[in-house]
From TrEMBL:
<dbReference type="InterPro" id="IPR052016">
    <property type="entry name" value="Bact_Sigma-Reg"/>
</dbReference>
<protein>
    <submittedName>
        <fullName>Serine/threonine-protein phosphatase</fullName>
    </submittedName>
</protein>
<feature type="domain" description="PPM-type phosphatase">
    <location>
        <begin position="185"/>
        <end position="401"/>
    </location>
</feature>
<dbReference type="InterPro" id="IPR001932">
    <property type="entry name" value="PPM-type_phosphatase-like_dom"/>
</dbReference>
<dbReference type="GO" id="GO:0016791">
    <property type="term" value="F:phosphatase activity"/>
</dbReference>
<dbReference type="InterPro" id="IPR036457">
    <property type="entry name" value="PPM-type-like_dom_sf"/>
</dbReference>
<keyword id="KW-0378">Hydrolase</keyword>
<dbReference type="Pfam" id="PF07228">
    <property type="entry name" value="SpoIIE"/>
</dbReference>
<dbReference type="InterPro" id="IPR029016">
    <property type="entry name" value="GAF-like_dom_sf"/>
</dbReference>
């Protein structure tokens, strides 16, 4: 047998660059060193190559009420569109492409998804559209979202576009501290919202998905303004430090307690709730440090309060906390909130109260399904029912556990 006969036969593969690959590749090749203000004209140029025109990019405002246009050369800058009751809002909330006929053409609204977090919406007009163009536009929108999130760290342009009212310093600190407001993987989804968006000070939340465990913390620092924002920053920083050291929940509390006590003294405190959820089994563990108990939602209605022994708020030197446990069912949701949501009352009136919170939650769950839509609607509805008054921070954070496996996503089909 000759040497040539011993060698395995090599099948030649077609590695030529197709149109779609070339389009996305050019965008990637140029984007690495591109200044943020040049992203818009590059996107418009690429979309023009497939016959698209009148490109707009809308970003979510901080109150989650509007989708506001991003200014930029070659972009169409129109009026903000409401998140509710608009084609752009439908694409944004439901994470799907929406097509609207327009004078012999079609206006296409594409959600901008960074991972699973909704960044905004890209809008483009084409004379007509087929499945190949739909696929290409979806992928292009995903790449645009990633570019916006990456370049956001280098500029104030995106922040300024999203800001619809003056924002105080404490709120700017808090917004810079937050993780993405939503995350979706096959086994679990989370969504949060803070109010008042432009004056929030002491409320914050944090989460991380490490292997099969979702870690969540929700805090409420005492007071208002910069003092509260500073305490919240230290509390979240201490939480992240302890979590990343693979520390148990009880010890995470102790570390946070020590950090707040040493930095601010015995007259300052932070209420807190820390959770760990195994996303494969639904096993939930949590520690409550003076925080309102979460609500367990099952079959689109509030089923129970997750009552548990509580320890003193962080900073008061409480004893080692009790770690509570519960096994969730697939489809269960947890509603976590801060006391500003239920303690608001008009002068001489009664507190809004937890019973009203439960009643409105049940009503909204009957009308809305997507988790982020529920979080938004719940926060905005409760603010309206409290007379539009928010004298204290009021934060909502929702978790939905679905279980199952996701290994198929790591395989090329």
């Amino acid at each position: 047998m000759t040497d040539d006969e011993r060698k395995p036969h090599r099948v030649e593969e077609d590695r030529s660059e197709g149109f779609g690959e070339r389009l996305l590749g050019v965008l990637l090749d140029r984007a690495h060193e591109m200044a943020p203000q040049l992203i818009a004209p590059l996107i418009a140029e690429e979309i023009a190559s497939i016959g698209g025109r009148d490109v707009s990019i809308l970003l979510q405002d901080y109150e989650q009420l509007l989708l506001v246009p991003l200014p930029g050369k070659r972009l169409v800058v129109g009026d903000p569109e409401p998140v509710d009751d608009s084609p752009a809002g439908e694409a944004f909330l439901h994470r799907r492409t929406v097509e609207v006929p327009l004078d012999g053409a079609v206006r296409v609204y594409l959600p901008l998804l960074d991972g699973s977090d909704q960044v905004g919406v890209m809008i483009v007009t084409l004379d007509d559209i087929d499945d190949d163009e739909r696929r290409l536009l979806r992928r292009l929108a995903g790449l645009v979202a990633d570019m916006i999130v990456t370049k956001d760290a280098y500029t104030d342009q995106f922040f300024v576009a999203r800001r619809r009212a003056p924002m105080d310093v404490a709120a700017e600190i808090q917004w810079s501290l937050l993780p993405p407001l939503s995350m979706i993987v096959p086994q679990v989804e989370v969504a949060g919202i803070l109010e008042p968006a432009y004056n929030v000070a002491g409320d914050s939340f944090d989460y991380a998905l490490n292997d099969d465990v979702l870690h969540v913390a929700m805090i409420d620092a005492m007071g208002h303004g910069l003092d509260a924002a500073t305490m919240a920053t230290v509390a979240i920083g201490a939480y992240r430090h302890a979590r990343r050291a693979d520390t148990e929940l009880a010890q995470i509390y102790a570390f946070m307690d020590q950090a707040i006590g040493e930095q601010f003294g015995p007259d300052h405190f932070v209420t807190a709730q820390m959770m760990c959820l195994d996303i494969t089994t639904g096993q939930l563990q949590w520690v409550n440090a003076g925080h309102p108990a979460p609500l367990l939602i099952r079959d689109r209605a509030v089923l129970d309060r997750l009552e548990s022994p509580t320890t003193l708020p962080v900073g008061f030197g409480g004893e080692q906390p009790h770690v509570s446990e519960r096994t969730l069912r697939r489809g269960d949701r947890l509603l976590c909130f801060t006391d500003g949501l239920i303690e608001e009352h008009q002068p001489g009136g009664e507190e809004f109260g937890e019973e009203q919170l439960i009643e409105w939650t049940n009503q909204i769950l009957r009308e809305h399904t997507p988790l982020r839509a529920v979080a938004r609607k719940l926060s905005h509805t409760l603010k309206r029912e409290r007379g539009g008054v928010t004298s204290d921070d009021a934060t909502v954070f929702l978790i939905e556990w679905r279980g199952g496996e996701a290994g198929h996503l790591a395989r090329l089909e």
